[in-house]
Amino acid sequence: MEKSLGKADWLRAARIALMHGGVEAVRVEKLARTLRVTKGSFYWHFKNREEILEALLHEWEEERDVISNLFDKEAIRPALAELFSEVGRRVKASPCGEAPSDAAIFAWAAVSPDVADRVNKEEAIRIRLLKHAFGQNDLALYVYMAYLGFIVRRQRVPPSVRDFPLFARVSTDLLLNSVPLRKANKKKPNKK
């Protein structure tokens, strides 16, 4: 008797496949083999391969909400602590497929102009949100770029995930010690 899988199981398997084999590894038959089930379970949750690929990209795009949550806080220090805590959790969760992998999405964007267009637009939104949150355009961009460097290194050297707290601490210090840093902006900027 075949085990019952939910949509989350297929997405987790697809995240891992994308991370380890690129977009070509996200194939219904390969995912079914990995999960040790027939393809029928997949079609209960998704119409086709394109739908699961869209789901992977969409969930990565929605991670911008972690940054948007900065605007719901009164004080910037606890907001930064919460931001880096959540990003750190996702950095640790992505290798086992529990969260989208930035590195996998960027690798996919490198081989697909359509995905690259969406990733570029999403990155522009994230950078704009960070700039607005911190009131420091150059510093916000620098912290974002440093994060990307961390992601690339973590992909190549998995044990470097333990360095994330150092990245978070240094980034927080940079942002909090910059002048002028906005106290807290209650109004969220336009996400588009």
Quick structural gist:
This protein is an all-alpha fold. It has 10 helices and no strands.
Please tell me about this protein's structure.
By secondary structure, the protein is mostly helical. It has 2 domains: 7-58, Homeodomain-like (Arc Repressor Mutant, subunit A, Orthogonal Bundle); 59-176. The protein contains 10 helices and no strands. It has helices at 7-21, 28-35, 40-45, 49-61, 65-68, 76-93, 102-111, 113-134, 137-156, 164-176. Helix 1 (7-21) crosses helix 4 (49-61) and helix 1 packs across helix 7 (102-111). The longest helix has 22 residues, at 113-134. The termini are far apart.
Identify the notable features of this structure and list them briefly.
192 residues, mainly alpha, Arc Repressor Mutant, subunit A, 10 helices, 0% strand, elongated
**Averaged pLDDT:** 88
First and last CA, distance? 48 Å
Q: What does the radius of gyration come to?
A: 18 Å
Per DSSP E runs of 2 or more residues, the count of β-strands stands at 0
Q: Can you tell me the number of structural domains?
A: 2
What portion of residues belong to β-strands?
under 5%
What composes the largest sheet?
Answer: none
Helix content: 55-70%
What class would the helix/strand composition place it in? Answer: mainly alpha
| Unreliably modeled segments | 182-186
Q: Which series of helices and strands comes N to C?
A: HHHHHHHHHH
What is the number of helices?
Answer: 10
Tell me the overall shape: elongated
